[in-house]
Amino acid sequence: MQDLINYFLNYPEALKKLKNKEACLIGFDVQETETIIKAYNDYYLADPITRQWGD
Fold this sequence. Notes:
With about 55 residues, this protein is mainly alpha-helical.
């Protein structure tokens, strides 16, 4: 997941296309892609002190 976050940070236009459903991640269907984007948003928008991935 960290690799995906780094990719989104380096290529924000790719994230924009994913959010607009103009693209999807290879190997993931649209629903899985939406789940990944939600996880990214939840992580990225979280307070840096409380940022952590699930156990």
